[in-house]
Design goal:
- It holds the Pfam family TP_methylase.
- InterPro entries: 4pyrrol_Mease, 4pyrrol_Methylase_sf, 4pyrrole_Mease_sub1, 4pyrrole_Mease_sub2, CobF.
- Pathway: Cofactor biosynthesis; adenosylcobalamin biosynthesis.
- This protein starts with a strand and ends with a strand.
- A hairpin with a 7-residue loop joins strand 8 and strand 9.
- It is globular, with a radius of gyration of 19 Å.
- It is built from seven helices and ten strands.
- With about 250 residues, the protein is of the alpha/beta class.
- The chain has two domains: about 140 residues, Cobalt-precorrin-4 Transmethylase, domain 1 (3-Layer(aba) Sandwich); about 100 residues, Tetrapyrrole methylase, C-terminal domain (Methyltransferase, Cobalt-precorrin-4 Transmethylase, Domain 2, 2-Layer Sandwich).
- The strands form two sheets. A five-stranded parallel sheet has the order 3-2-4-1-5, with helices on both faces. Strands 6-7-10-8-9 form a five-stranded mixed sheet, with helices on both faces.
Amino acid sequence: MKRLLVIGIGAGDPDQLTFQGAKAIGAADAFLLVGKGEAKDDLTGLRRELIAAHGREPYRVVEVRDPERDRTASAYTAAVEDWRSRRAEIYESFVRDELAEGETGALLVWGDPGVYDSTLAALDEIGVEFDFEVIPGISSISALTARHRVGLTRVGRPVHITTGRRLAAEGATADDVLVMLDAACAFGEVGDGFHIYWGAYLGTPDEILIEGPVAEVAERIRATRAEARARKGWIMDTYLLRRSPS
């Protein structure tokens, strides 16, 4: 049977690739790289470097362009599901047309495939027969807390993982809130009493870290984020909001 490896490669530092991930790259006959255009070519570049370092010759690399997502749609969930279905078509084509029976293909996924990623959900939509294995990676959450030297959890307290969109709509629903991709900088509206640990481009040479009371660093984060995005053409960031003890 055709086999697919979904390999978590970490948040951006090549050294974050696990031994298991390196072995999985070495076991693949073909790799699918889904790129996001020239502005984000450095994301694809890291994947190429990892394949060159750990791949077992001879291997094949198939590169395709990621489908565009409608970011102006009012129906956010429907827009994401449509984009994910078009991603699934790319995966299905790769398995059907690029892998022979008995061969192994690989997808190199940022961070951990099981944390804030659509790859596994898209694979559920594939209509061809294949088997797959998931190799966990270091998520941006782990990279963020490690770089700020803080724990994700506190004794007896829950952690809420959410998005910037949901934070803007619901506010902080726990004393510790981990937020993924907040284009609107909703952290500025959580009110007094929160500390923020913010990071962008984690694990890369462009990494940016800012932490402090939200009331004191919110404007600095906004300005830094806007400048970085304008300079690079894209930004990937995450942050931990932590309510300070009374």
